[in-house]
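2 proteins. here.
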Amino acid sequence: MTINLPPQVERIVQDAVLSGRYHSAEDVLTEAVALWQTQRAGAITAGEQRREAIERLKTFGRRHGLSLGGMTIRELRNEARP
């Protein structure tokens, strides 16, 4: 596979190799992709947790006859943000 990097990213990769921390550009990119996968997995988990929490709130509201007065959960969440 051939990858064309923007000049700024290419310089970062070259600097990482020249520093001696990595043996090759492939090592730099392998670590970068591994970190990206870990971050992405965490983001998906956080998103799933948020969706589950919203579903629990909806169930609680229905079970106890609570209403948001016509607001959606998104509107309520946005109103609560500074």
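next one coming up
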Amino acid sequence: MVSPHRRAIPRAVTDVLLWLLASDVAAAHQPQPHWPDRCGNLRCAGQAYPCPPARDAHRAHQAASRPQPRPRGRAQVSTPTYQVTGWFQP
């Protein structure tokens, strides 16, 4: 039996459990409505936002997802300004 997840999981996620845990922690550690520079979670007791658990959750989100592919293309190669033929004599 497959149970539905709490959230829709993006296709780039490679570690589902880590991503779900990080999502739960990030949802629990949001800034306070009246003081956006303070964490609203009672465990943080007024720490500056983003608090350490919120920063760790952000890092876990990044670790649970595969990195963005680098664009591929041709490197720009300049032509040499000097003659390279005939320099090797066997």
